[in-house]
Amino acid sequence: MNELFDKVKKNLIWKSVFRRDYRNTVRDRALAIFGNVFLHLHPVKVRESAVKLRYTWGMGGITFFAFIILTITGIVLMFYYHPTVNLAYEDMKDLEFQVPYGVISRNLHRWAAHFMVIVVMIHMFRVFMTGSYKAPRQFNWGIGVILLVLTFLLSFTGYLLPWDQLGFWAITVGTNMGAATPLLGYQGPFSEYLHITPYNDVRFALLGGATVAGNALLRSYIWHCIAIPVIALILMVVHFWRVRKDGGISRPQSN
Amino acid sequence: MNPFIKIITQPDNIAIVIMIFMVSFFMVWAFQQALRNDKLRLTGYAVEGELDNDVDTYKPLVRIEMIISLVVMVGLTIWSVWVDAPLEEIANPTITPNPAKAPWYFLGLQELLVYFDPWLAGVVLPTLIIVGLLAIPYIDINPKGNGYYTFSERKYAILTFSFGFFILWLLLIVIGVFFRGPGWLWYWPWQEWDTQRVVFEPTRDLSSMIGIDSRSWGGFIVGMVVVCGYFVAGMVAPYKYFKKKCPEFLEQLGMTRYLITAFLFVTMMSIPIKMVLRLVFLVKYIWIIWFVPGGLNF
Predict the structure, then answer these.
(1) Closest CA to A73 of B41, B21, B284, B85
(2) Would you tell me which residues 255-284 of chain B have a C-beta closer than 8 angstroms to some C-beta of chain A?
(3) Å from B18 to nearest chain A CA?
């Protein structure tokens, strides 16, 4: 058995992928982190308290993990989905009855989305309770608040895509709020001064029309699958980078 | 089937049941750690994390991340095998469901529509919530409690945040999901939903309670005095109090920071106040600015 392992590890292909051996030395434990493109988000050494589950509850990491699950299942679902009024609902039925593992892909996507919203809220609560927004982490708290809002918007834009009664009316109720925007919504105060009508107000811009119809579906789809994920990803990069630049997970200043 | 069982086992609502359990669990855990740390501080010991050393990331941290990922993945898989994502009839603009509910995380805002006009509940208040959250690190100048759970060192901050988080946000979501039925009427869990039910609630405006038409200049002035008076009093009274009790705190805080903090706090407290006025005294509007096109009513 050991011989086999040796053979595999001395193999040219293995060496080209992993670059070096791992021995349990200080140097190799460090190299395991910064020699790996994925792991090197981490510092090589962290404080003991940063590893303790009862301090961070792992909530930020779980949120990111939920985002990864959502990206993967989302891509799977995109293969079977047309963002058009005629086909969207049919595609849902196809996922249910025709596509292999279609049901579980959709279930995973939906429940992971709900889960991500819950977890991101608890993450914010933890960060508040440990005072981790205090200097020098004020700016990163701000990035986090924006990411929280983006999480809601991601979930909200996805709600319409099945094109069923649930999503259709939830989006109708939600975007009707846009019509009430002061100055810029046709039902909002002061909007008369700007000659705002149902055909040029905020709601129209959100829906691409005066009612929830084909354009709204396309806009939801693009916001949901491309625009918001890209923005969220950029902000996540900043968020994680700032965690490290601000000195890692917060901990008490030693007096 | 029992209406309560029916509503909590709706596929999307299972998420909210999970949320209630998770949030309660972490709330207890956070306050438990906070109180323990407070006790440690009081007796002169170091709080958790104060004296700890560095450890390697590989493997202690990588290992724990791996385990959590697996647990989450297994949990979500079980959830997904067990419960199917809902799919209703195809979208039909001519059939409006009753009640038409927004996604659950926005139901707190939808609940506010009972008490405020859409321009406030749906646009201005959410904007102020986001602005307020962004402002927290800049208006909280208390240097204590950075990096550990504590309650006694940041009582005011924690109580204010907890009130907003648990009551004004999560409780309103739970109410919106479980206690609001057709016509957005209140239904107890044991009550069957009834689309025919009508509740006659003769709401009135504040000034008409003292016999002044709320859509007259007199009503306008009464409303203005009450609303502006509330904001001015709410912002001046604490100032006077701090000036007398701890002027050095005000000095440190500075006028700009004080005004922003006080404004945000008074605005937040206006929500429960308006809820009580509406639910107990059936007050619809406090101040109607009737001459603004589109209506600017508080």
Answers:
(1) B85
(2) none
(3) 9
